[in-house]
Amino acid sequence: MLRTKGERLRDELVAMADKYGRDRSSLLNILQEVQHRYYSISEYAMQVIADLLDIHPVEIHSVVSFYSFLNARPRGEFVIRLCRTISCDMAGKDQVARQLENDLGITFGETTPDGKFSLEWANCLGMCDQGPALLVNQRVYTHVTPEKIHGILQECRQRFGVHAMAGQKEKHI
Amino acid sequence: MITPTRTSSLTFSEITPGSGLKAALSRPPADALAKINFSGLRGRGGAGFPTSLKWELADKSPGQKKYVICNADEGEPGTFKDRVILADFADLVFEGMTIAAYCISAQEGIVYLRAEYTYLRPHLEEVLEQRREKNLLGNKIGGQDGFDFDIHVRMGSGSYVCGEETALIESLEGQRGEPRNRPPFPIDTGYLGNPTTVNNVETFAWAACILSQGSDWFKKLGTEKSTGHKLFSVSGDCQLPGVYDLPLGITIDELLDQVGGQDAKAVQVGGAAGQCVPRHEFHRAIAYEDIPTGGSIIVFGPHRDMLRVAANFLEFFIDESCGQCTPCREGAPKLLEGIEMLQRGECSMEHLQELYSLGQTMQLASKCGLGQTAPNTFLSIVDHFRDEILGRTAPA
Ligand SMILES: Cc1cc2nc3c(=O)[nH]c(=O)nc-3n(C[C@H](O)[C@H](O)[C@H](O)COP(=O)(O)O)c2cc1C
Ligand code: SF4
User: Hey, is B103 helix, strand or coil?
Assistant: First the structure.
């Protein structure tokens, strides 16, 4: 049977709601999982979650907009978050920031046109003894220098390659 | 992947895992509470509230369901000791939570882990699973009839203010992380309206040590009002940044000697929410009765521009303010404008005085700790570094 993308998403959301429990206190668990799988939380997803938890969609918008790790707008597969707090600042985060912009061709707050990378600022990552520090999704890099940026991005691109292949295979099935 | 942090020798590594819980379970809960009380342990998250008192109030608060929450939101700039504790001594933290549950008759524990530390989660889940297998979590813990308790990890989503205990609870309940008015306190109206104790990661670990080693062992070090050791996260302009296990009451001078930061011109104690201590006050003690801290120590070398420091912290607070109340939401951007004027060399003394009193108003009138502490560094820099910040030449 052919199922639309929307129907599939709906099924996934139902499964999540059942896993975490259909009450308000499950909301962040569900939103985190959606963000993780789809790199953003769409209008449609918010509407379905609202129905499942019996709350108004506006409430979900309000929650999503509050947290910096949740996003209504699509973000890249790799979200790079550079720490801008004082210890990383003193360790030279400005130069790292500049090189990130140069190598990615975007500025902070933007996503590359191919949807691979988003560049963001983060507040203290708790790596203050080893700054400058950045996160690529959940992975932490410390003592980052402008020179190391290229290698970090290459590592992501290679992982992305593997991912993209896996995705294609799925489509064939 | 956990990047190793340099540490001094840590007391936690000398404690046999399991010994604290075993000691607790061998006597009635009131005895465990008395031990914590006698040790003088105070909250290691920053505010320094007596731990035994919090647990006693949660215990006495009427309610069928009670919760123990471990605050692992560690978002204070310059703090990373909870990350090290969770990576290396998770067992001790869970043991402390289980002891707390025994004291207050809680059935459920939650670790609220910041999103930035997601990479620690698999490790924590593994340790929890091992504890379940050893019957240190689950039903009839340690063979005690009626003592059922389990712990789950819930994730934050990138918000500093969610470290404030009522905002943390809001977040767990699926809301924006906006702090509540207190009272009521979580000990009577906490998670889902139930009595809840919220404690810092380190507080739980020390509680387990105290049950294992005794109150006197803990009290041997520290000062009368600030007993025991504390972990310090040290960063900035020093030779040996890292996590240090030191007695409370240590002076800033002594601490700088250990970390190789003797030439510092100022030290930020307590993170962005703390205070900026100038060199002529380095004889002061780090303790609840003098300079309290959650453990963040940031060293500023002789060449640092203190206005840049103040601007960095204010940008942090503006970004992280929940926007609920006016003094914080409107005040912090005004202070930042003032800093920028000072940077351009355009701020009159009169205007600086107005900003100073605005900062004092924020301390008094903000709803939660974020807004109350946001002006701290601005005020200390105006107090101590006037020569450096006034009458600057405008940048070319
Ligand atoms: C803005 C703000 C952020 C906070 N962040 C944390 C935090 O990350 N970790 C923490 O343990 N306490 C934090 N606190 C303090 C908590 O509200 C609470 O006092 C603490 O978790 C109690 O634990 P303790 O008694 O063991 O220290 C924060 C407070 C405020 C006002
Ligand atoms: S002080 Fe700031 S963070 Fe706290 S409640 Fe008010 S606006 Fe929100």
Answer: helix
A156 touches chain B (CB under 8 A): no
Would you state the structure tokens that stand for residue B303, as one six-digit string?
Answer: 């060449």
pLDDT digits (tens, 9 = 90+) for B297-318: 999 999 999 999 999 999 999 9
pTM comes to 0.96
Task: Please give the tally of structural domains in chain A.
Answer: 2
Q: Let me know if residue A62 belongs to a domain.
A: yes
Domain of residue B105: give its range: 11-214
Q: Are A96 and A144 in contact (CB under 8 A)?
A: yes
Nearest CA residue ID for atom 5, ligand 1 = B163
Token pair, residue B278, equals 């100038």
- Kindly state if the Cβ of B166 falls inside 6 Å of ligand 1: no
Contact across the interface for A140 and B77, Cβ inside 8 Å: no
List the strands of the sheet with A117-122, edge to edge.
A117-122, A78-83, A134-136, A139-141
Q: How far, in Å, is the centroid of ligand 2 from the Cα of B374? A: 10
pLDDT tens digits along A112-160: 999 999 999 999 999 999 999 999 999 999 999 999 999 999 999 987 6
Tell me the ipTM for this assembly: 0.94
Whether A67 and B243 lie within 8 Å, measured CB to CB: no
**Number of folded domains in chain B?**
3
